[in-house]
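I'll show one example:
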Amino acid sequence: MPTAPLLIMGGGPVGLALALMLARRAVRSIIVDGRTLEQARADRRLLALSRGTLQLVAPLIDVAALPVAPIRSVVVSSAGEFGRVGIGADDLGPEPLGVTIRYGDLLEPLARACVGNPNLEVRRPCRLTAVRQQPQQVVAELEGGVCMAPLLINAEGTPVPATDAASTSPVALIADAWIDGPASGTAFERFTREGPLALLPLPHGAPGGPRDPGLPAGAQPMALVWCMPQQAAERRRQLPDADFLAELQQSFGRSGRLLRVGPRTAYVLHQQAREQLHEHRVVWIGNAAQTLHPVAGQGLNLGMRDAAALADQLAQAGAAARDPVTVLDDYARRRRADRAAIVLLTRTMPGLFATRAAPVALGRSLALTALSAFPDARRQFARLLMFGVRS
């Protein structure tokens, strides 16, 4: 076991979960995050947690107490084409396929579980200003001092791309919306020629939700994530609500009647995947290792699997009193297939469904039809999204 604790950059859900996984195995760590806990908890982004991710975090926090919206079925379709597939309880049992939760609502119990744990320390707000690698340790210069550790784990998130790259990247337009028709717990992934359009169940308590007297009793609050080129996003962001709803309804189709939309915001979609997961005594996990397109909601789930695999490897090194750097090659090999499959899936699906080429259009329609017609293929695809490629 190392004489000094490991250093984890990033106190988001992946970094905190990794520290708690290590602490359960008596491996000590220090978490460093530049935000105060109040700033981090104020983040209201919506996250999608797969069934597999819920299983990973269940030993760390009380999953049953989380303020979530269950995803009980997923409907996948392509605008203007035949072929549609639904994944639900008939395929993978009555448990939810996953849940949605606000970032801050997931971070809160993870941060609370860290309090008083003798095997970890959280330093907030504290920024890392420089890193120097030495043969036997990493020297991290922090605001207010220097920290030396046998390993630095970067779970901090997405690096900011160059301005030119950002200017050509697609954009996700996000908003709360209310829809009438679908059963509670239904999520939609609708592929359009501009980009994927997702509608996800919102946790209870969304402002203007289904109890709003101006909405039908069965109206469901949902989170909209609509990917498109930047110019289209800026135009739609400024449309009057009625005009925006009309365009959204046309792209979404007949699966439900869109009733209302909340304020719209847009963010640039940055995508990157590191070829090497470690460099001597620095290792990258989560969004620091790969930042994915939001299609299929795989980013956090892949990051949590990174954390679980790395915790297993580092615990083995600690139990054998080995230098943690000796297990990093094994960690990278263990993560190779899962990362490759999910990165490929999220990179290719938007473009594949956006092209208008007739042979490709026919092929994707036939693929959706086949998934709908053959339960075994549908279940395998669903398991990939929920659990990844198991090593």
Q: What stands out?
A: The two ends are 25 Å apart (CA to CA). The chain has twelve helices and 22 strands.
